[in-house]
Amino acid sequence: MAENENLFRRVNERVEDQATADEERVEFVCECADVDCHERVLLTLAAYEDVRAAPNRFVVKAGHERLEVERVLDQGFGYVVVEKLGPAGEVAAEDDPRQT
């Protein structure tokens, strides 16, 4: 599960790099654990930066959160920001592309 989430986070880092400041909202990939998920979420670049403020946070489509390993920190239109807990949080922090 962690590998899938980290892969989607790396994809979204590239999406952010290619986005322009004049875009109101940007389409990001859902960073949930489901390998078959192809859902998208719309966020402002500022909201995405808020997610990336901590290495154990991810943005997922509403309803894709897994409360057994994460908690909901915030929500927006059609998405939620989750924080990985315990070992899942440690794995997320270790593979944070902004830290490597």
Q: What is the string of helix and strand elements?
A: HEEHEEEH
Strand percent estimate: 25-35%
- Strand arrangement in the largest pleated sheet: 3-5-4
DSSP strand tally: 5
Q: What structural class is derived from the secondary structure elements?
A: alpha+beta
The largest sheet, given as strand count, sense and whether it forms a barrel, is:
3 strands, antiparallel
User: What gyration radius follows from the Cα positions, in whole Å?
Assistant: 12 Å
Distance between the termini: 20 Å
Average pLDDT metric: 88
Helix proportion range: 25-40%
Number of domains: 1
Number of helices: 3
Description:
The protein has 100 residues and is α+β, with helices and mostly antiparallel strands. The chain has one domain (2-94). It is 33% helix and 26% strand. A three-stranded antiparallel beta sheet has the order 3-5-4. A two-stranded antiparallel ribbon has the order 1-2. The protein is globular, with a radius of gyration of 12 Å.
Task: Summarize the topology.
Elements: H1 2-18, E1 26-29, E2 40-43, H2 45-51, E3 57-61, E4 70-76, E5 79-84, H3 86-94
Antiparallel strand pairs: 1-2, 3-5, 4-5
Task: Give me a quick take on this structure.
The protein is of the alpha+beta class and 100 residues long.
Key features?
100 residues; alpha+beta; three-stranded antiparallel sheet; two-stranded antiparallel sheet; 5 strands
